[in-house]
Specification:
Helix content of chain A: 40-55%
Shape of chain A: globular
Radius of gyration of chain A: 32 Å
Helix content of chain B: under 10%
Structural class of chain A: mainly alpha
Largest sheet of chain A: 3 strands, antiparallel
Distance between the termini of chain A: 92 Å
Largest interface: A-B, 63 and 79 residues
Number of helices of chain A: 18
Strand content of chain B: over 45%
Shape of chain B: globular
Number of strands of chain B: 20
Largest sheet of chain B: 20 strands, mixed
Oligomer: heterodimer
Strand content of chain A: 5-15%
């Protein structure tokens, strides 16, 4: 009996050895889509699109039975309200022929079967374009955006109110700015320069000067050509994209579904509204860049920059070219004071910038508000680009979004009315709008100064409002420190309110008090 | 993965600790392990324990104090600073321990308390002649150590550093049954348990939610001159390891690794005494081990369950929110790894009397062979607002190593009250072959559709994408030997007093 039990135990152990133990649960499965081959749409052409669309006219079917664009709620009440800030939009199409002129009205998503089929094909094409973004394949981005844009344009001709075509056109048209002829030829010339890929400062500046000179011919300089291009091409493109996105946002709870890499993605107000905000900001930037005098050529060349760079601080005698370069700098910041001033014919556009920024912040804010709202309803964010929520099955927390909204609120307060900046030591009111109401260049607000020999820095001196010399530049630089009172004596600003931007710094003393507070806080 | 391994091992160690490991009265025991000491990586551990026990009638009390130090260091140099990082873990833990045991005629009760905290209650029942005995124990507590930091070499990195702690709450139950008939003892035990995640702390947290079970069957023959034993152990665990970032009211999962582990081990020991008195006889010993370890990293395609999602590891910022629309990249790693270890060794212990002392020099040398196959896929998913795509890298390592673990030791004892022992261990590799990581990036689109394959088990290779022959490279023996005596070295010293 004893021997038996020993053998039993031994056999028990050995049986485990022979059989071995393993758990069947630990099997490795593979991704379902490991074998999925993505349908390539690169062979899809504008002609193919025409074929699809022509079925439209030959087909008797005029009603769509389903829509690929989804409504996120069952609400059937279609609001005609524009997005919150559309009243402020000054979107106006220019006369450019390339740009499809949009109308500010609601889009609809019940397009016909042929249109829907065409849109699916074009959508696949645009997926290729976005893949090129991921691979940083600039050439493919350009060709794909051009062909995709043509396709959306064709669809919009047949069905101008299609929501999906409007979204597609809006996004693709902005990407298609990369096909701008002037921009591309400027880049080509820059790239053809010596060591064009080097980031060495001398190389970069040399190549920029060569490129700028190359494009400065005839009546116009490179600066004017770029500004013309922005007005003629970029701004109208952004304008029409803005209108289309506003149309989309006016359609309550519209969502754009796209399937990439086998994953459904949904773009909704939480993406469209911030995207519209970005477009307004881009428009503000383009308006700014095209409205102010940034001309710094000297007799249609930019060579003076290199001459200026050869001047060393050892105050040796300057040669002829260097003298000319110094004169150029003086004229830029000095007496004609036209540099950075706003062109007369762009003053009206310039004045819209605060409203554009206001719209930018307002739209972005409403998008982020929408994401928080979505986070409170389960299932609303299933295919969203990012999921908002406080639990582990989310990408960003509600606090993250709330922080952005708070920052946007501050920006809105600052842009809408004089804004009080109040920290422990600094207390100042800034009225940003004032900056956009005048057309003066920023050097109009520089302190009073004069000189006896414009090529000699040491002959420059500050003056008071009457023109009496107070202190030479060189003495100012040589002295290590100045008290606030000394500064107030030596340096006088022509307008302590800086054109009303600082409405409460009414005296010279106020300016220096503020500057000292800022210095102490650096 | 390794975090979870480390969690399960202490649970098993604690289980074995309740079997009279503390019976020696007054012992100081220090060990040092120097597994790797190189410029770019280091694995070292050290521990010192002092313990004491006393018995009054049928009640015994034990107390101990252990200092454990584990230092891990790995410096990764990538193509530039942005891709270079250092991971460092310098742990120093002081662990207090106390136990009380009450022995009665046919049973005993025992309570063990560790300062982690960890608590074990156990009881044993036995018949007067020990023909049959049985036991049960229950343990639960919390582990919260293994602090580590990850530091990027670049200040520009969006995540410059991560300081994190691994913690979880394990509990287990164990049941034993055995029989002892003359010189033969057979014992069988079954252990099962799980770990609950511990996620209350703020900042970066690593934890796991796992369950495991193990069986041990053990047969021992103890004759006058010969002792032989055979042990079979099987352990299986389902591990869900994860990493969270907790900030204010929000918690975000940025790391998730579901894994299955299967371990089979068979161990045989033999010891022969040259003489009748164990106190004075020299001894010959032999050992053989077969160990098979399987690891499966499981595929999980759910959103928010990526192996690593760096975007979600970003602390709250506007950049974090924007990153999902602009550049979102995550990784899913799956595949299998298997290691087989064969080990056989012989040893001899001399027993000499010098005056009142007993001097016992010993030598033990084994031969081991280990083979590991690691076959992983790393799927990189990149997306932004409008597009997403993925590529899959194939990562294959094949490691073969053979060598010897040599142990030299010396112990010194007085007949009654005192003993001291020193043992040193050194790994001496004979053969080392590592096929360098086979790394191949395969865009999914290019994979030709294949026939439907059944989901593979741990014994089967995972379905393969067509591959080129992996480049072979051999690490030279010279490079192994140059570091051999700095690496794979361990030392243990003990001093004990008996009263």
């Amino acid at each position: 009996m004893k021997v038996k039990s020993v053998f039993l135990a031994a056999a028990f152990s050995i049986s485990f050895l022979i059989a071995g133990c393993s758990s069947d649960d630990h099997s490795v499965s593979t991704p379902d889509d490991e074998e999925v081959s993505v349908e390539s749409s690169s062979s899809f052409t504008l002609d193919d699109l025409d074929d699809i669309l022509n079925e439209l006219s030959s087909s008797s079917e005029k009603k769509a039975t389903s829509s690929s664009a989804t409504k996120k709620t069952s609400s059937s009440s279609k609001t005609t309200a524009k997005s919150s800030s559309s009243k402020k939009t000054s979107a106006k199409s220019s006369s450019s022929q390339k740009v499809t002129k949009p109308e500010n009205k609601r889009c609809i998503d019940d397009t016909t079967k042929a249109i829907k089929k065409a849109l699916e094909k074009v959508k696949a094409n645009s997926v290729e374009m976005f893949k090129a973004f991921g691979k940083k394949d600039i050439d493919k981005i350009k060709t794909d955006s051009r062909s995709t844009l043509d396709m959306y344009r064709t669809i919009l001709k047949k069905s101008p109110n299609s929501c999906e075509a409007q979204v597609g056109y809006a996004i693709t048209s902005v990407i298609n700015l990369s096909n701008d002829t002037l921009l591309n030829s400027i880049i080509d010339v820059y790239r053809s320069g010596d060591n064009a890929t080097s980031l060495n400062e001398d190389n970069v500046i040399n190549n920029l000067i060569i490129t700028a000179n190359e494009f400065t011919s005839g009546r116009k300089t490179i600066t004017q050509k770029i500004q013309d291009e922005i007005i003629k091409s970029s701004l109208p493109t952004v304008d029409s994209a803005i209108v289309y996105l506003q149309n989309i946002l006016a359609e309550k709870d519209y969502a754009f579904d796209i399937s990439v890499d086998g994953n459904p993605k949904e773009l909704d107000k939480s993406e469209f509204a911030p995207a519209l905000g970005v477009l307004f900001a881009v428009k503000a930037f383009f308006t700014m860049a095209s409205s102010i005098n940034l001309e710094f050529s000297n007799k249609k060349t930019y060579d003076w920059i290199n001459d200026f760079r050869t001047i060393h601080s050892d105050r040796k005698e300057l040669d002829g070219k260097q003298v000319q370069a110094v004169k150029m700098v003086v004229s830029l910041i000095g007496f004609d004071k036209m540099f950075t001033s706003v062109y007369d014919n762009r003053l009206e556009a310039w004045k819209t910038i605060p409203d554009l920024l206001d719209s930018a912040f307002t739209e972005a804010r409403s998008g982020f508000k929408y994401s928080i709202k979505e986070s409170t309803t389960p299932g609303m964010q299933d295919n969203d680009i990012y999921v908002v929520g406080d639990d582990a099955d989310a990408d960003v927390s509600i606090d993250d979004i709330q922080n952005i909204i708070t920052a946007l609120d501050i920006a809105l307060d600052a842009i809408e009315a004089p804004y009080k900046v109040k920290t422990n030591d600094i207390n100042v009111t800034i009225d940003v709008r004032k900056f956009f109401q005048k057309n003066k260049g920023i050097f109009n607000y520089a302190p009073y100064y004069s000189y006896s020999d414009e090529t000699n820095l040491c002959s420059y001196y500050f003056t008071n409002a009457k023109g009496d010399s107070t202190l030479s530049f060189c003495s100012f630089i040589d002295r290590e420190s100045h008290t606030k009172e000394e500064m107030e004596t030596y340096i006088t600003f022509p307008d302590p309110t800086f054109g009303g931007i600082l409405p409460y710094t009414k005296t010279q003393k106020d300016v220096w008090d503020l500057l000292e507070d800022i210095k102490d806080n650096m | 993965m390794k975090f979870s391994d480390l969690k399960i091992l202490p649970a098993l160690l604690l289980a074995t600790a309740s079997y009279g490991a503390w019976s020696t009265q007054g012992l100081a025991d220090c060990s040092g392990l120097f597994l790797l000491d190189q410029k770019n990586q280091k694995i070292q551990a050290r521990s010192c324990t002092i313990k004491d026990s006393t018995q009054v009638k049928n009640i015994s009390a034990m107390a101990g104090y252990t200092h454990v130090g584990i230092d891990l260091y790995k410096n990764h140099i990538g193509k530039d600073d942005l891709y270079s990082w250092t991971i460092k873990s310098e742990n120093s833990e002081d662990i207090g321990y106390a136990a009380v045991q009450a022995d009665f005629r046919y049973l005993d009760f025992r309570i063990d308390v560790y300062s982690f905290p960890f608590f074990i209650a156990s009881t044993n029942w036995y018949m007067p002649d020990s023909i049959v005995f049985a036991g049960a124990s229950f343990g639960q507590g919390e582990f919260s150590f293994l602090d580590f930091s990850w530091v990027s070499a670049s200040n520009l990195s969006v995540i410059p550093n991560i300081n994190a702690t691994f913690s979880d709450k394990p509990h287990y139950r164990q049941f034993d049954i055995g029989t002892k008939i003359q010189n033969h003892t057979a014992r069988f035990n079954f252990l099962y348990g799980d770990t609950d995640p511990s996620t209350e702390d703020a900042g970066y947290i690593f934890s796991d939610s796992s369950h495991f079970w193990a069986i041990n069957s053990n047969y021992t023959y103890s004759g006058t001159a010969n002792t032989a034993s055979l042990l079979y152990t099987y352990l299986t665990a389902d591990v869900n390891a994860f990493g969270l970032l907790r900030e204010n009211n929000s918690v975000k999962r940025f790391f998730f690794l579901p894994a299955g582990i299967d371990i089979n081990m068979l161990k045989a020991d033999f010891r022969h005494l040259f003489g009748n008195n164990p106190q004075t006889a020299s001894a010959f010993s032999a050992r053989a081990i077969i160990l098979d370890l399987k690891l499966a990293l499981l595929w999980d395609d759910r959103r928010f369950y990526e192996t690593l999602a760096p975007n979600r590891a970003l602390t709250s910022s506007i950049i974090k929110t924007l990153s999902f629309s602009v550049y979102n990249r995550s990784f899913r790693i799956y595949g299998t790894a298997e290691a087989v270890v064969l080990d056989a060794g012989l040893g001899y212990e001399w027993n000499r009397r010098i005056g009142m002392f007993r001097l016992k020099p010993n030598i033990f040398a084994d031969f081991f062979y280990a083979k590991a196959d690691i076959d992983l896929r790393n799927r990189t998913e990149t997306s932004n607002m409008f597009y997403s795509e993925h590529t899959t890298d194939t990562l294959i390592w094949e490691l073969g190593v053979a060598g010897s673990l040599v142990n030299l030791g010396l112990s010194l004892e007085t007949p009654k009250h005192f003993f001291a022992a020193v043992n040193i261990y050194q790994v001496v590799p004979f053969y080392f072959n590592l096929k360098t990581p086979f790394h191949k990036e395969t865009p999914e689109e290019e994979i030709p559709p294949g026939p439907d394959q059944p989901p593979p088990g741990p014994d089967q290779p995972i379905p393969d994408i067509p591959e080129e022959t992996p480049p072979k490279s051999r690490t030279t023996l010279k490079s192994i030997f140059s570091g051999a005596f700095r690496n794979g070295f361990a030392i243990n010293a003990q001093i004990g007093l008996r009263f």
